[in-house]
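Thread: Modeling a multi-component assembly for a lab meeting

Hi all, long-time lurker, first post. My supervisor asked me to bring a structural picture of a complex we are working on to next week's group meeting, and I have zero experience with this. I have the sequence lines for every component (828 residues in total). Could someone generate the structure of the whole assembly? Inputs are pasted exactly as I received them:
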Amino acid sequence: MKKSILNIFRFATFCVLLVSCGKDNYDSPSSTLSGKVVYNGDPIGVRGTNNSVRLQLWQDGYALRTPIDVYVTQDGSFKATLFDGTYKLISVPGNGPWKHATDTMEVQVNGDTNVDFHIEPYFVISGTKYVLQGDVLTATFTIEQLDETRDPEEVSLLVNDTQFVDMGHFTARQNSEEKEAGMLTISINIADQLASSSALFARVAVKPSGITEAVYDLQPEKIK
Amino acid sequence: MKSAIKYILILGMLVGISACSKFLDRESESILGEEQVYSDEKMILSVLANYYGRMDWSQNLTDPGSFALLDEAGFSSGGPNNMQTYTDSLWYVYDYRLVRNVNEFIHGVKGSTLADETKLKYEGEARFIRAWTYFNMVRSLGGVPLVGDEIYDYEQGTDPESLQVARATEEETYNYIIEECSAIAEIMSEATNTNSARANKWTALALKARAALYAGSIAKYNYRTPEVKTSGGEVGIPADKANGFFQIAYETAQEIIQQSPYALYDKNEDKGRNFYEAISSKSSNEVIWARDFIYPGQTHMFANNVIASSVRGDIDANIVTPILNLVEDFEYIDDRNGALKLEDPSGEYIYYDNPQDVFANKDPRLYGTVIYSGADFLGTTITYQAGVRYLDNGQWRVKTGIPGAEDPTMGLLTSEDGPTTSNDQFVNKTGFNIRKFVEENRDASTRGRGSDMWFVRFRYAEFLMIAAEAGLELGKSQTEVAGYINQIRERAGISPLTSVTLDDIIQERRVEFAFEDHRYWDLKRWRIAHQVWGGQDTPTATHYALFPYRIYAPGTANHDKWVFEKRKASHTLYPRYFRFQNYYNFIDQDWINQNPKLVRNPYQ
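Re: Modeling a multi-component assembly
Sure thing. I ran the full set together rather than chain by chain. Output:
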């Protein structure tokens, strides 16, 4: 008898542990906001590693205002998982290789939402062609300068052994002597890299003076 | 009968509840009131001691890792360090708790029963601590809210907006620090004190001169970083203010040079030892203000962390070790290019008889700052040996081992002191150890005891350098400017300069003040940090190590000689990368949430 009462108590205690009232359980955010940074409808390539280039999302109506950083990847796209609601999407002054626009973009997130974030980059790289002849890689491309206040500080051809190629991640790099807008050609001897790496990717970049980040061509080219 | 008992009980309870002694209104016997504290000088001192202990910011001895982030030293122990960029919160200070405590202190001292003269002395000391706090805030964050002497109170119903103070401009903040220092220099003691641990008139003037120099160079050079400013002036100082600030720096430095009881320490014939003693010996008459430590009670683990293996007192060693970049920036006695002579023009190694010969005729300050191969520490000669180079069928090969490993024919392969490229803990990876601020006492490197070496914040040499730099910026004569620098170079034991440019000043400060928490702030105020630490594989951003090899080639002329290899430091994976956004730390979102009037910093 005594034992069964004890067991009832044990069972009751166990049951109490299972009960919860659910007040503190929110669903996790399920909507995604995705998009690209674009100029004239074309995405702009940036450095995609090291949390380098970012946009910020703000939401009004709450007591504490903390921005959500949205990092831009190599091909100019970005993605964030959010709650439904109205957000403000802005660029961070001086962060990306583009002019900071004071205009705020309002984004209505409802389910999966896709937006283009329009920016005015300092440069646009177009028509990049890579030619590998023997050990010498040659890149030909056109730089269009969109802002007279920012001259190109560095124009580089970068080679890396993964498809993440940027000014922080490369195994070979050649800076152009010429730093003018227009058609440019850069050549680099990559005999060592060809010998030691099983895959190689190339990319060109223009860094505006006074800005940390550079404009890159959109997709690294697989050259091996 | 039963009811009688009930009444007796009720009566007893009532008596128990009634009380007329004011039991709850007693004075506490364990908490001291404001009046009690501030009317007793011993109490005041212990309150001040608490404040002095709360100012270990940026590079300091309680955080040995802070010395490995720049281009003076790197991490050596364990696996490679993969730091890629400087964080947005590196070394920022936003300590309004301390500012408030100081204001409470000032209020308390003013209302105490002490003599007026004594009151002023303590008030000055507290205001200096507050000014130093503001200085540490402004150099990391730019302009910050200035709250003066006010002690803010919150009561129910207070409009929180009255507690939220907006940021002052960077210029106003520097001006506030300068004005505070001018005012308190008038009321503070001129006398020196034990181990230069406490503020006096000269520390106030020292802070004034340094703050003015920082503000002046920001005003003059922030054109180099046009994006690094805010529209409200919280970051950035107008260029036309530069000369005013330089003038203050120049005059204040003169006052310290001419009137203070401090001087360049020059008591030891041996110039290298002399430089070590000038900074790392508490008998130095050069030090104006230091963060003092004392055993037992107040010690740090700096010696424990950075000591060389063969002289360590415990298992720990080599966690942070100097890099070749710093060593090569020390000039030769008569040659301004300090690069070590490792190879002849044909690319062939130069063979040296002794490991220390490659450092012959280097600036003696190198000895006082860094332990290099063949130098002594604690009576032991420390020899770094990465491996043995030997001839194998006419081909040079290298054989290395774990630290201390011997080969039956070739003898010692790798020195107990390294360097190696392994991922072993507490093994040297760069070929040098730090000497500056390392106590010459084996017990100081044990975990149990720790070191009570002081950390120098102001010393006389800095004011010669400030007089020189401010003088140069103001266009004083080259003879005068060179005169200040040459006092330092003469004391160091190297050839004097005839003309001086800003580059010479950058170079001199780099070697004179290595490991003294100057480099980072200097490069920031000159706005050249983003070039020196550009994140690319350049000679200034990449860390280098020096690997000495002993030659094993019996029967040849080079047997038992030494060659030295300059190589990229294996344990600093990425070049130092200082981005524009690192010129000023980000304002924490947390602070903004509490005070929405705070303006964000650039790039934030």
